[in-house]
Amino acid sequence: MRITTDLDEIDLGVVHRWLSEGAYWALGRPRDVLERAAQNSLNFYAQGDDGTPLGYARVVTDSATFAWLCDVYVDPGARGQAVGKTLVGAVVEVIESLGLKRTLLATVDAHGLYEQFGFTLHPNPERVMQRGG
Questions:
Q1: 3-state SS string over 64-94?
Q2: Among 103, 97, 95, which Cα is nearest to 122's?
Q3: Residue 55, CA distances (Å) to 79, 80, 118 in order
Q4: What is the mean predicted confidence (pLDDT) over 61-87?
Q5: What is the pLDDT at residue 132?
Q6: Which residues pair with 103 in a beta bridge?
Q7: Backbone angles phi, psi at 64, to 5 degrees
Q8: What are 8-42's pLDDT values in tens digits?
């Protein structure tokens, strides 16, 4: 498996299909929105040794103090093959090299994956707010 962060090497058509058709948080996301988000983020793309797309993750960051890990998705045919673990490991390696104070994420069902990399429940969820849904 290979991870690339080079946007020119990422098949955004595949990523768009994964997210807009298979990710509960991004269903129906337009292709132009996906492309704009990717262009303004750090991107991580997992490929098999034969170039087969396996998974994707995106990090929104100021590269100094804060990051938001989002859009983590593994192709259904590649689940159970440590693709998610490899992607999150690559993300953590990069964000640690930046010396960020905090990285946040939201998950419904992958707590065990993220806990392996030091993520914990937010100690003060009553302080976390959002605008929009």
A1: CCEEEEEEEEECHHHCCCCHHHHHHHHHHHH
A2: 103
A3: 9, 12, 21
A4: 97
A5: 85
A6: 67
A7: -135, -45
A8: 999 999 999 999 999 999 999 999 999 999 999 99
